[in-house]
Amino acid sequence: MEDSNKRENILQAALELVAEHGFHGTPMSMIAEKAGVGAGTIYCYFKSKDELIIEVNHVLENKISLAIKEEYPFNKDIRKSFFHLCKTLFAYFITHPIHFRFLEQYFGSPYGMSAHRERIMGNTRKTNIFDIMVEQGIKQKVIKDLPLFIHFALTFGPVVMLVQNHVRGLIELDDAQIIRSIEASWDAIKM
Amino acid sequence: MEDSNKRENILQAALELVAEHGFHGTPMSMIAEKAGVGAGTIYCYFKSKDELIIEVNHVLENKISLAIKEEYPFNKDIRKSFFHLCKTLFAYFITHPIHFRFLEQYFGSPYGMSAHRERIMGNTRKTNIFDIMVEQGIKQKVIKDLPLFIHFALTFGPVVMLVQNHVRGLIELDDAQIIRSIEASWDAIKM
DNA sequence: GATTTATAAGTGAATGTTCATTCTTAGGCT
DNA sequence: AGCCTAAGAATGAACATTCACTTATAAATC
After folding, report:
1. What is the Cα–Cα distance from B81 to B72, expressed in whole angstroms?
2. pLDDT tens sequence across A128-148
3. CB–CB contact B188 A154 (8 Å)
4. Domains of chain B and any CATH numbers
């Protein structure tokens, strides 16, 4: 039984180890061991450690993007969209704590910084779900007329902080609390 | 004119370099050079790199704690307290971006994690200004009856994210925007 | 006060370790 | 055989920490 999807194994090992120990805390040798491959093998698939980490990030971004777009209530009212978006994010990260912790590491590092920059500036994805929701909400006068980045911070700031504490085991988030927290966030942005 | 406060210089150099390059990005040799001391000198004052970084964090925590307590409107109404707290935090971090970036690094690392744990759990400081404010606000029925950690996330989540983007040069926060964002946060937690 | 002696503070080259990356060799496949 | 994937030992760079030594400061003696 040849476990031949080595590339997958390497990505998965890198994801888990970086999530747990951070970028500088995980030597390539450790990744190789966890992936069940030789140290040099990694370099058959990735040019460098940096590239490997960046690739892991891409995989995660795609998965999350998919999770959010799934069942997204296009054309429904803004409040419903907002709740769906937040609930999906909470659900995703609580069921995939490893992904969250990896992204935390990633965005705190030099790589992530520039990625984040582009994300925020909106240069890359012209059709960001959140951006569109905010734009429509303002037009419909159901949410406050604030700059996009303030809406972004009001919405995702609390989510990130709560998930952070949950994932680190400092608090225990249950569904009721998540709903109440989203309701409060909605109060922040609604007209 | 002997520049004899070497300990101070080392702490300051460590603060600035770690803020800019991260913990693993700043060798002790670099800290020594910036502080204008020999490489070994650091070990006369600090047992290890870890201890040095932890000490820098303590210094910062004290400064911030002082800044917040200064002019804090005890006994005034909750809304005023809330605004003062948020405004002070914004002001502090915008005038001390280096401090913010250091703390970002610190709390993303293994050290900070445990410190943060205690902070959140409230085991250490029994008289946290924020905790008291929330408690009183709930009693007075001016803010929602939510767990402390949700109020914490609703309040500081947006602040942290906005300052993060400001400090990284991705956005330009002006006073009016800060006020509007605090007003929105207040809407989130108020009854 | 001058001179020697003791103590502490400071230094930076040397050490040993850790790690990303490379390279040589071995094994499987056509 | 020839070719390609994989392995893991070998390499060399970077770095935290140490330590033998120097310099400055204080104490003691005359």
Report:
1. 7
2. 788 889 999 999 999 999 999
3. yes
4. 1-46 (1.10.10.60), 63-189 (1.10.357.10)
